[in-house]
Amino acid sequence: MLHSMTGFGRAEAHTADHLITIEIKTLNSKQLELSMRVPSCYRAIEGALRNMVSHSLERGKIDISICRENTSGNVAVTLSEKALEGYKKQFDTLSEKLGVNPPADFWSVVTRMPDVMENNLPSASCAAEEDECKAVENCLKEALEHVNSFRATEGAKLELFFMERIKEITDLLCQITPYEQERVPRIKQRLAEMLARIPEAEPDSNRLEQELIYYIEKLDVTEEKQRLGQHLRYFIETLELPTPGQGKKLGFISQEMGREINTLGSKSNHAEMQKIVVRMKDSLEQIKEQVLNTL
Question: 116 — phi, psi (to 5°)?
Fold first, then answer.
């Protein structure tokens, strides 16, 4: 069961006076990188919220936004009647004294003056009530569930993708065998042709056979094929583990697969085998790219 590190979740909670909205976005990362934008009234529970996130999502670049909107109908600020009266009186007095007309648009001018607005609600920095804090925690829990559901859906797509790429490499590995077997007579023929170019040479048949065996042993890829086959099977076994969190292990396995494929390429000494190795590398590179996004 795979989970992707790409995810999105959103949840809302209503209290008597507020609408709380939480949005979570996640991307791939080697470690847990958590960024939270939290209203100051929830600072007291921020640590608990972070613990919930790290326990639920484990790894990835995580961006969380918590928004608190007033729904009580109470106006946050009102116009100060005394300040307006004072400014109006001063405008009239100065206009008469200086012989100039008062502002044509009194309201556009006066609303920019100091102390015209009064805040009637408690400071936003005040700690939220216990019931509201509980609502925030429940809202975050719901958003995290949505993220994990999204990650599981994306993980299922990744698993299908990996299975297809592993099958490609497995099929290509089987295609190497015919070319591997035909190399021996070709190598023997090539050595005979090279010796034939030297008429005065009288090679010892036993020594020639020993050199041929040594040369063939250097090009033998049996062990590399066996180890690559084992890595392919282990990759699939890891994919099928019942709990998520295989991303790093799959990365290590893909690195080992790459080593064996590279050795196959260096030992192939055959054009068709090298073409097969190139196709293996292409499939493996696609696996490595997607492993980076696996939890």
Answer: -75, -35
What φ, ψ does residue 292 adopt, rounded to 5°?
A: -60, -25
Pick from 83, 81, 93: which is nearest to 113 by CA?
Answer: 83
Residues above pLDDT 70, as percent of the chain: 87
Whole-angstrom distance, CA of residue 284 vs CA of residue 287:
5
Can you spell out the DSSP letters for 226-288? Answer: HHHHHHHHHHHHHHT-SSS--HHHHHHHHHHHHHHHHHHHHHH-SHHHHHHHHHHHHHHHHHH
Residue with tokens 């069961």: 1
Could you give the residue ranges of the DSSP H alpha helices within the chain? Answer: 46-57, 81-98, 106-110, 130-196, 205-219, 222-239, 247-268, 271-291
Q: What is the pTM of this model?
A: 0.74
The full set of domains in the chain, from first to last, is 7-72+127-151 (3.30.230.10), 77-119 (no CATH), 154-291 (no CATH)
Tokens matching residue 248 = 């790093």
Residues 66-117 have pLDDT tens digits of 998 887 766 556 777 888 888 888 888 888 888 888 777 888 787 777 777 7
